[in-house]
Design brief:
Chains A, B: Belongs to the ComB family. The structure is a homodimer. Chain A is an alpha/beta fold and about 240 residues long. Chain A is about 35% helix and about 20% strand. In chain A, helix 4 (about 125-135) packs across helix 5 (about 155-165) and helix 5 packs across helix 6 (about 175-190). The interface between A and B is medium-sized, with 25 and 25 residues.
């Protein structure tokens, strides 16, 4: 039986070197877009519509949608919320369709959207997602959102965690050095994500903005059994 | 006193995100271009002229130069040698000006050539190079050559080794996650480069070509006290 691929791509800019060879793309933006999307879908939000630009976000707002917009870690003026996972846990959001535009995460989702299947990964839904991926028996690419097309540590570690989980079943293989390195970084980080990521540039960025509670939430694995999936340009709950 | 920067850039494609902020660029292609260049300069070759394309290499050959050309790990037909470090140790090369074109390394050198200073790094000249870099007290970027614009493990580990060496003096700092991750990968690899890199894709590629002796040589640190430096489009020995 031929093994399936599990690879880790570090940035949306690198996606062109991986494109076309994978059945499932897992988009990862641990701090904080994909953690927020998991929170929203877990909380009963009907769908999250990811848009790349502030202009698109404004168009949805004019049509009456609730819209989250974040740039440089902060809520964009005039929008309802940013990408704090806590914003998406409010009871009044249940059943709603909401719109989200972030610096990196929603851009990565839109870059990947031509793939057969796009799902949302974070540390918060790690094990639940990995178990589902293993059952699918398809070629999987973890697409880290990075920071403005540069490598970032927390998304790579989350990708490495997924790679490690799939590889140890013996049913998957990795060919790319980026995947091997992501796995090693996960193994070095896994006993203390919080301590390991002290040196992460984005964590430093968010700390300046007093977002320590958000960071703790996003770096705590397996708080949610949920898989958000992209269908017709909207992210919904995968029911199975 | 303000600390100087030491950062690691994973591929020539990523160089645009780093460009302009560094005084010294260290170009790294451990398997095998920069290891071969260190060998050549250490062996007394007068200069190595790095060219990006096979066409340029042929033009030099027509003018009577000895020319090395490698693509996909193999010597390009019609040229004198490829990028095996052993090819550059021959006594008849002493004092000569030779030309080299390789898949990744010479491309990285040419991408970096507008920087104030470009030097050649490998594991073979690691400590000698690091000591010199520390003395310069300038902003340093390690530019890994990668494999066709994708991340590669051995160049990243070499960059991480340089970063670790400079950071531990307390006179340098890193801001980018790529540098932090490179340092962690070096720390995981440092006691056994050969074992750690068993899973490297390029090592597998070269192993198929029966280049195990080359790999051993390139992964053995500190066999040469030499710093090749780019001056007027030629790589020469830095005398100091």
């Amino acid at each position: 039986m031929q093994k399936k691929l599990i690879e880790v791509c570090y940035t949306p800019a690198d996606y062109e070197y991986f494109k076309g060879r994978f059945d499932i793309i897992v988009v990862i933006d641990v701090l904080r877009a994909t953690s927020a999307i998991c929170s929203a879908i877990h909380n009963g939000v009907n769908s999250v519509i990811p848009v790349s630009t502030i202009e698109e976000a404004k168009e949805y707002q004019d049509k009456g949608y609730l819209v989250g917009a974040e740039r440089q870690g902060e809520i964009v003026e005039g929008f309802d919320f940013g990408n704090s996972p806590y914003s998406y846990m409010k009871p009044e959001l249940k059943g709603q369709d909401i719109v989200l535009s972030t610096t990196n995460g929603t851009r990565a989702i839109n870059i990947a959207k031509d793939a057969p299947t796009v799902v949302i990964g974070a540390l918060t839904n790690l094990n639940f997602l990995c178990n589902w991926l293993i059952e699918q028996d398809k070629n999987v690419l973890c697409l880290a959102s990075g920071w403005k097309d540069k490598f970032n540590l927390e998304d790579t570690i989350c990708g490495g965690a997924i790679a490690e989980s799939l590889l140890k079943t013996g049913k998957f293989t990795s060919n790319d050095d980026s995947s091997v390195a992501a796995k090693y970084l996960f193994l070095a980080a896994k006993d203390n994500y919080f301590g390991f990521l002290k040196s992460s540039s984005h964590r430093r960025r968010l700390k300046k903005l007093n977002l320590n509670e958000d960071i703790k939430f996003c770096l705590t694995p397996n708080s949610m059994d949920v898989i958000p999936i992209l269908r017709n340009d909207r992210i919904e709950k995968l029911e199975f």
